[in-house]
Amino acid sequence: MTEIRNDWTRDEIAEIFALPFTDLLFRAATVHRAHHRADEVQLCTLLSIKTGGCPEDCGYCSQSASADSGVKATKLMGVQEVLQRAAQAKDAGSQRFCMGAAWRNPKDRDMPAIVEIVKGVRAMGLETCMTLGMLTPAQADMLAEAGLDYYNHNIDSSPEYYERVISTRSMGDRLDTLGHVRAAGINVCSGGIVGMGETREDRVGFIHTLATLPRHPESVPVNALVPVKGTVLGDMLADTPLAKIDDIEFVRTVATARITMPMSMVRLSAGRESMSEATQALCFLAGANSIFTGDKLLTAPNAGDDEDAALLARLGMRAMEGDEPMLACARAEAAE
Ligand code: SAM
Ligand code: DTB
Ligand code: SF4
């Protein structure tokens, strides 16, 4: 078993990131195998339960009210409709149902419906994950009491690059919410986006921030920017195509996350649709062991269940079943 460390230095992480590619992949695959089954991938389904009109100004996001992306703002979806969508996801073989709302933070008047949704989805035997923006300690406790398994709240990038992408809230605000989620006893899902025009040093700083949290997030989503027309970053990258991240650098980011956070589920998240099967296969070799399935993310298109099933079959890999990810969390606790 690899030692679980929370005292990584930025230099150490930069050194791992820059290893010869073959050495990096070998090391990441070795760590992966010591803690997880390397032939299994967790399937998660996303649903946007409240879309668009968000007061935050995240430069990548189609749902920000300050973007001109054409995404229409909706109200919070009704409980029954969410449950129906969760049932479809379960039938399609999903293990975790992740629900996102385009809020800066939930209002207290929204909480009863959110609690009902968590209880209903959980009762179907799915793991529940929500991403609703910033939480107060009391809201985190309410979600924990409802039985929420995971809360997603991404740090998105390095502390330095974060400020260039979002101005309406700080990295400190994000870390505070992650602290409230942890204190409430909910599993933490936190990652970020690569390909936003950041440097290698920023990608190192991004992994360093996650890998030095007092406890590593149980899930680490690594998104590749989906460039959306009408968003600051979508338009910037359309003008400077050279800023687009190359596949090898993306795989390096996944491998470095795997090596520094051995127990975590590393999720190959947004951006898979424009990734070749070979790149996705390299990501699995580098330690990614979770994906979003279904033909839609929150607002952007995704690969789709059939394509994913075909990819896993071609690679001779299989969907994770039962409580295996929770087992990983239990092992993490036991290792403390
Ligand atoms: N409003 C909540 C929040 O920001 O925490 C939840 C929803 S938000 C859409 C969830 C995450 O999706 C963001 O933190 C970001 O990392 C990712 N994301 C959003 N737009 C993206 C894009 N165009 N490409 C890649 N990832 C994106
Ligand atoms: C995460 O890290 N990626 C997911 C999930 N957490 C909520 C969201 C991806 C959003 C991609 C862009 C869109 O669909 O609008
Ligand atoms: Fe709002 Fe979340 Fe999009 Fe930022 S990422 S604009 S907080 S929905």
Compute the number of strand runs: 10
CATH-level-2 architecture: Alpha-Beta Barrel
**CATH hierarchy, class:** Alpha Beta
Total DSSP helices: 13
Order of helices and strands: HHEHEHEHEHHEEHEHHEHEHEH
Instruction: Please bin the fraction of helical residues.
Output: 40-55%
Q: What's the rounded overall pLDDT mean?
A: 93
Structural class: alpha/beta
Stretches with pLDDT under 50, minimum 5 residues: 324-336
> What number of domains?
1
What would the principal axes of the Cα set say about the shape?
globular
Calculate the terminal CA-CA distance, rounded to whole Å.
Answer: 13 Å
**Rg over alpha carbons:** 18 Å
Q: What is the CATH H-level superfamily?
A: Aldolase class I
Describe the structure.
With 336 residues, the protein is an alpha/beta fold. It has a single domain, classed as TIM Barrel (Alpha-Beta Barrel), CATH 3.20.20.70. Strands 1, 2, 3, 4, 5, 6, 7, 8, 9 and 10 form a 10-stranded parallel β-sheet that branches. Strand 8, helix 11 and strand 9 form a beta-alpha-beta unit. Helix 2 crosses helix 10. The radius of gyration is 18 Å and the shape is globular. 49% of the residues are buried. Bound molecules: S-adenosylmethionine, 6-(5-methyl-2-OXO-imidazolidin-4-yl)-hexanoic acid (DTB) and iron/sulfur cluster. The site of iron/sulfur cluster has 8 residues, from loops.
